[in-house]
Design a protein that fits this description.
The complex is a heterodimer of chains A (280) and B (462).
Chain A: E1 2-11, E2 14-20, H1 22-27, E3 33-37, E4 45-48, E5 51-53, E6 58-64, H2 68-74, E7 81-82, E8 84-89, E9 100-106, H3 109-122, E10 126-133, H4 142-147, E11 151-156, E12 163-164, H5 168-174, E13 183-187, H6 190-200, E14 206-210, E15 226-229, E16 232-235, H7 236-239, E17 242-244, H8 250-257, H9 261-274
Parallel strand pairs in A: 9-10, 9-13, 10-11, 11-12, 13-14
Antiparallel strand pairs in A: 1-2, 1-7, 2-6, 3-4, 3-8, 5-6, 14-17, 15-16
Chain B: H1 16-19, H2 32-39, H3 49-52, H4 60-68, H5 72-80, H6 86-92, H7 114-128, E1 142-146, H8 150-161, E2 165-169, H9 178-181, H10 190-202, E3 206-208, H11 219-224, E4 227-232, E5 238-239, E6 252-254, H12 255-264, E7 282-286, H13 290-301, E8 306-310, H14 322-330, E9 334-336, E10 339-346, E11 352-365, E12 371-375, E13 381-384, E14 387-390, E15 394-395, H15 399-403, E16 428-430, H16 433-436, H17 441-461
The chains are: A alpha/beta (280), B alpha/beta (462).
The structure holds flavin-adenine dinucleotide (2 copies), iron/sulfur cluster (2 copies) and FE2/S2 (inorganic) cluster.
One flavin-adenine dinucleotide binds next to helix 8, helix 13, helix 15, helix 16 and helix 17 of chain B.
């Protein structure tokens, strides 16, 4: 069992959790994730490590409630415990050899881009971060991201906070000029990552996107996480989650993410009817 | 001299129509009377040919004699001297090509039903309440075991009996390996796995879940942590695909994914359990081994109206157990022999709508001795489907070898070991599917047994 040491509301339906998971904390590198399972009835779901501390053995994750598992998790309070956390999984983000980076985080992906920006800055790379949300209420990790970057740009779709519009607006500006960024890292909704890759393509700036296919084991055993990159099938959980954004088949990813839509809605409906059974 | 009885006592099975719709165990096993009657058929051959057919050398005539005398407790104790997992082996061993293939009675009639008798004594013990084994005296030496499949469980149990402090590290959240995530409950009920894993735990073996060796920690770090030797029983979990167009469509699954969703995650109890599974009405399973049989029979149980096997060879070349093939036939599975998939078709949402196939014919045997199939020109056709399950076999997961440069592997990623099951890294042993590629439960257990002995010798020699 893994006990929730801290729980904090970050924004509407977005919560931060701190767990004690020493094995994971000791080994984790930016870009890696864990798979967690709440209890005997639970599904295995992948969640990115938002922060880790090898000294205290603590890990931090940020979760947005969208379906059954993520909503069920939000009913757990500090002191509650979940059945399983396994990790760190996936290949760490490739960070070496860059001078100037742009880190783009959208929605809950802001939490996922955080360890990448933090590590790049520590390595002496010039980091500009762009974080985007739908509206002011969904902006979070602003302080954390400011500390992890040399420059931070916040955007909201509706203009209720920071710059109005999508992350690709400021991104395009950063890709111009002689001393433009030599790499872009992007984590967020699939459509955002697709647009980021589209925006960087004309400038031929290396662009890494962190894909979020449906996973089961997360260890390379089932192939549920198949993605197509440069026309070749890859396993998202072991070959990724980071891939070259200019080579990813985003259309396939979106179709595959919708594979269990009806059943997910049935499951969520049932959960909503039964209500939140709190795990304390 | 009592009369030799050439006919085996049959076990009863659930009605195919009824059982094909639920996950209850198909075979009901022997009653005590039936078991005694069957056990009495055994000739107690002096040269014990049956034992030579068993990879773990179970005391076959001995335990069967005790059954014939009605001493079930004695029989299970005798069996367990060699076999740590009798309830599992009695159900899933391919007995017809192992112990029973060598039985003297098989020359003129039915061999003794060794597997069913083994299952009987294991089940009888569960009914009576399994006696926890006496905890062995510890020698204070630590051994690490990677994976909690049958090879690892056997190796760990044998080492614990010798006094070692054994810790198993398992990536998934449940022990058992393929027994838990692959083989469905209608062939191997979950309480049997639980009971037999508990037996191993009661010998003092610790099982740590949610640890992926190679990621959470490495082999080298295990040695740094005081483990004197390591056994790798990580299995062959990496699924193969066909590499044909359309294979990433929604509704195409590796058998591993399909079975893991159903068996490990209990998707057949959705929505009471959170994990969904694709409920196909017209399902094709590509391949014809045990994994394919389990997948196609699972599809029926999830409500398929049509469930078929697509195989490029014929029933003569299939690798599935005969018993399972018959079960599948009885339950209404359709078999398409000499058929090879060319392309999977999908609609605009990416959902499977069908599969384009070609008819094959057999030519002269290839290196493996099986007849090589080749396509018949112009015989292409399309079947309407909503689900395709790929059951073409698996190879060892490369993760541990990738993170341990000292470990050398052969083609397909199989760990290279010597005759003592030691890998190319001193103190690291390996066995089961990780070494052989997909094989059988009992072969994996046999390897675990020998490796346990080698580990003991290795540590004592140091
Ligand atoms: C590598 C990776 C890292 C991720 N990191 C984060 C993170 O840091 N924070 C966060 O909030 N979310 C993250 N996600 C997404 C998160 O896994 C899904 O939101 C979650 O699985 C939804 O589960 P549910 O039961 O609540 O919703 P459901 O209603 O079951 O599903 C909602 C949608 O989530 C996707 N999904 C469903 N099941 C899975 C699954 N087993 N694996 C992956 N996706 C699934 C599907 O597109 C589905 O339509 C990450 C996903 C991946 C692959
Ligand atoms: C669907 C199916 C049906 C089958 N039916 C039969 C049958 O009827 N009869 C028969 O004899 N055989 C059958 N087999 C084959 C048999 O199950 C295998 O040969 C046997 O389980 C191999 O045992 P193992 O211990 O080597 O590995 P596995 O059973 O594969 O166990 C390996 C374990 O190691 C874990 N692991 C892997 N990598 C790591 C890591 N890096 N760190 C930690 N843990 C790790 C895995 O999660 C797994 O739990 C079947 C196989 C399948 C898939
Ligand atoms: S373990 Fe398998 S091969 Fe050995 S006696 Fe039992 S059924 Fe036969
Ligand atoms: S070979 Fe058959 S008859 Fe002979 S001892 Fe073994 S099981 Fe009994
Ligand atoms: S999630 Fe199973 S192989 Fe990637």
């Amino acid at each position: 069992m893994f006990t929730i040491l801290e729980k904090r509301d970050l924004a509407d339906k977005i919560c931060e959790y701190v767990f004690e998971a020493p094995l994971v904390a000791k080994k984790a590198r930016p870009g890696q994730f864990v798979i967690l399972r709440l209890d005997e009835e639970g599904e295995r779901i992948p969640i990115t490590l938002a922060d880790t501390d090898p000294k205290t053995g603590r890990i931090k994750i940020v979760v947005q409630a969208i379906g059954t598992t993520t909503n069920r998790l939000h009913c757990f309070e500090k002191g509650g415990a979940i059945a399983d956390i396994i990790g760190p999984l996936g290949t760490p983000t490739h960070l070496d050899g860059f001078k100037k980076a742009v880190c783009v985080g959208g929605g809950v992906g802001i939490a996922c881009i955080h360890p990448i920006a933090k590590e790049l800055k520590a390595m002496g790379v010039q980091v500009t971060s762009i974080i985007g949300s739908r509206c002011k209420d969904l902006v979070f990790f602003e302080d954390e991201m400011r500390a992890a970057s040399h420059e931070l740009i916040v955007t909201t779709d509706d203009g209720s906070y920071g710059r109005k519009g999508l992350v690709t607006g400021p991104l395009a500006e950063l890709l111009q000029g002689a001393d433009k960024a030599d790499v872009v890292f992007s984590v967020g909704p699939v459509i955002m990552m697709r647009e980021v890759a589209k925006a960087t393509k004309p400038y031929e700036v290396k662009t890494y996107v962190s894909l979020n296919p449906i996973m089961v084991d997360g260890t390379g055993m089932c192939g549920a996480c198949r993605v197509s990159v440069g026309g070749v099938t890859k396993f998202g959980c072991v070959d990724g989650p980071d891939f070259d954004g200019h080579q990813v088949d985003f259309d396939l990813l979106m179709k595959r993410l919708a594979m269990f839509k009806e059943m997910e809605q049935q499951s969520l409906g049932l959960w909503q009817k039964e209500g939140c059974k709190c795990h304390k | 001299m009592p009369q030799i009885n050439f006919k085996r006592v049959p076990t009863s099975e659930r009605d195919p129509k009824e059982r094909a719709r639920n996950f209850e165990e198909v075979n009901l096993g022997y009653t005590a009377e039936q078991a005694i009657e069957e056990a009495k058929r055994c000739l107690q051959c002096k040269n014990r040919p049956c034992v030579a057919g068993c990879p773990v050398e179970v005391y076959i005539p001995e335990f069967i004699k005790l059954i014939s005398e009605g001493d079930f407790k004695g029989a299970i104790a005798k069996n367990k001297e060699k076999n740590n997992l009798p309830g599992i082996c009695g159900r899933v061993c391919p007995q017809e090509s192992q112990c029973e293939a060598k039985c003297t009675l098989g020359v003129k009639g039915d061999p003794v039903s060794i597997g069913k008798l083994e299952r009987f004594v294991a089940d009888q013990e569960i009914k009576d309440g399994v006696k926890a084994p006496e905890a062995p005296v510890k020698n204070g030496l630590k051994v690490a075991v990677v994976g909690a499949g049958p090879s690892s469980l056997t190796c760990a149990a044998d080492l614990a009996r010798m006094g070692y402090e054994v810790t198993i590290f398992e990536a998934l959240h449940k022990p058992g390996g393929v027994l838990s995530y692959g083989i469905p409950p209608f062939r191997l009920p979950r309480n049997i796995i639980e009971t037999e894993v508990n037996y191993v735990k009661n010998l003092g073996v610790q099982i740590k879940m949610d640890v992926l060796i190679g990621k959470s920690t490495t082999i080298k770090e295990l040695f740094d942590g005081g483990y004197k030797a390591v056994f790798i029983g990580s299995g062959a979990g990496l699924p193969s695909f066909l590499n044909i167009p359309g294979e990433n469509s929604n509704g195409v699954f590796s058998a591993n994914e399909y079975l893991t969703r159903v068996n490990l995650m209990k998707a057949y109890k959705f929505p009471n359990f959170d994990t969904p599974v694709w409920l196909g009405k017209r399902v094709a399973v590509v391949g014809c081994g045990n994994v394919a049989m389990d997948s196609v029979r699972t599809a029926l149980r999830l409500g398929a109206e049509k469930a078929m096997i697509v195989y490029r060879r014929t029933s003569n070349e299939m690798t599935a157990r005969v018993e399972e093939y018959h079960h599948a036939q009885e339950e209404g599975v359709e078999f398409n022999w000499l058929t090879n998939p060319l392309e999977i078709l999908a609609d605009e949402k990416g959902r499977v709508t069908g599969m384009k196939c070609v008819k094959m014919r057999l030519c002269e045997p290839d290196a493996s001795g099986r007849c090589r199939p080749e396509p018949i020109p112009g015989s292409e056709f399309t079947v309407e489907l909503d689900t395709v399950i790929i059951a073409l076999g698996t190879s060892p997961n490369p993760l541990i070898a990738q993170t341990t440069p000292e470990l050398k592997t052969a083609k397909h990623g199989n760990l290279i070991v010597d005759d003592k099951y030691q890998t190319t890294m001193p103190g690291v042993f390996g066995g089961g599917d990780a070494v052989t590629g997909s094989a059988t439960v009992i072969q994996a257990m046999g390897a675990g047994k020998i490796a346990a002995r080698s580990i003991d010798e290795y540590i004592k020699a140091k």
